[in-house]
Write a structure and sequence with these properties.
By secondary structure, the protein is α+β, with helices and mostly antiparallel strands. It folds into 3 domains: about 1-55, Dodecin subunit-like (2-Layer Sandwich); about 60-135, K homology (KH) domain (GMP Synthetase, Chain A, domain 3, 2-Layer Sandwich); about 140-215, 2-Layer Sandwich (Ribosomal Protein S8, Chain: A, domain 1), CATH 3.30.1370.50. The protein has helices at about 10-20, 55-75, 100-105, 110-120, 140-160, 170-180, 205-215; strands spanning about 1-10, 30-40, 45-55, 80-85, 90-95, 130-135, 165, 190-195, 200-205. The protein has a 3-stranded antiparallel sheet with strand order 1-3-2. A 3-stranded mixed sheet has the order 4-5-6. The protein has a 3-stranded antiparallel sheet with strand order 7-9-8. Helix 2 (about 55-75) crosses helix 4 (about 110-120) and helix 5 crosses helix 6 (about 170-180).
């Protein structure tokens, strides 16, 4: 939980200013009055009030991430609705639209670019980073299933031929899926090679690793 303080001439004004700063609704915060001063000499009524608004940080950042992506899509001229969920500190934004093919792009390049941009903007001034994942029409789920099957096929080929398989460049999320898919396989090992967007995953036979160890 986190909190901010705000001031106003009335309670409603102070709370409204705080909610505007946070981008949250009244139901998403707890309000505590810290200071209150009143007029005297026959002029009654509150003239100054200070409040503290306590809120869930992740809920606030999820709201911000949703708004950021919605604004980007609007500027792109895409009719879409963004639905946000949070689980175990990670945020997922699902885009509901009739232009899913356009937003996914070739090999997921467009959705990857959008995801990168949203993550940069959401974490721009944050001390602790959160990971935001974008999805459209269950694309990420289908892609994860495809990558796991691909990893198993390549691993089977590596075991048969004894030759290292080099995959096409993948983003960090896709590389992680490959590594996790084969981490329990005692006959192959995975490593990453390259820099930035050109980083690839290599699937190698473990006996090659053992042979090199004996030669050393």
């Amino acid at each position: 939980m986190a909190a901010i303080e705000e001031q106003g001439r009335t309670l409603d004004e102070a709370v409204s200013k705080g909610l505007q700063r946070l981008g949250l609704s009244h139901s998403e915060v707890r309000v505590e009055v810290l200071e209150e001063s009143r007029k005297f000499f026959g002029l009654f009524g509150t003239t100054h009030i200070k409040v503290r608004l306590t809120y869930d940080v992740l809920a606030a950042r999820l709201r911000a991430a949703t708004a950021i992506l919605q604004d980007i899509l609007t500027r792109m001229g895409i009719e879409a609705r963004v639905e946000g969920t949070e689980r175990n500190g990670n945020m997922s934004l699902n885009i509901v639209t009739n232009d899913s093919g356009l937003l996914i792009g070739r090999r997921g390049q467009t959705i990857d670019a959008l995801q990168y941009l949203v993550n940069r903007l959401v974490n721009k001034e944050a001390s602790d980073l959160v990971r935001v994942t974008l999805d459209i029409a269950h694309y990420q789920e289908r892609r994860e299933h495809h990558l796991k099957e691909l990893a198993q096929r390549l691993a089977a080929r590596v075991k048969t031929t004894g030759q290292t398989a080099v995959m096409a460049p993948l983003n960090a999320r896709d590389r992680r899926i490959i590594h996790q898919a084969l981490q329990e396989d005692g006959e192959v090992r995975t490593t990453s090679k390259g820099e930035g967007a050109l980083r690839k995953v290599l699937i190698s036979p473990r006996r090659m690793e053992q042979s090199q160890s004996r030669e050393a």
